[in-house]
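Box 3.1 A note on notation
Throughout this textbook, protein chains are presented in two layers. The first layer is the amino acid sequence; the second is a token string describing backbone geometry. Keep the layers aligned when reading.
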Amino acid sequence: MDLRRILFLILTGGVISLAALVLFLGRTDPYFLGAIGWLIFSLALLVATASLFTSLGLWLRLWRLNKQADNLFRTAEESEALKTSIRQGILLTLFLAVILVLQIFRLLAWWNFIIAVFVFAFTELYLNIENLRTYRNKLKK
């Protein structure tokens, strides 16, 4: 699949989930919301934030690489930026989901937040190290 299509699908999914989230917030009463309603709300929120974080991360990486729009996704740097942006967008969304679940159950404290930050930071660090090892092994061959 072309990388432009992947980016288009990410943005389209984000816009659709954001529209669903806005409609859901405008038309429902949170006091009479059942489990299915909370599930729909959570899924729409998580898809919208994953799309936002991924798009923002990709835009910042491409801005840093100083690429023009006409030769976008033609080199390995841009496809690697897309992979990293998707991974970090999903990790940030999972972090947000963990924090929101802890807050819903009234278990969120400052030390829980710090533990979650360290867990997700070390996960990202581990994934970066594995990515670097894979890249070095490809260069050796």
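The mean pLDDT is 85. The chain has one domain: 3-140.
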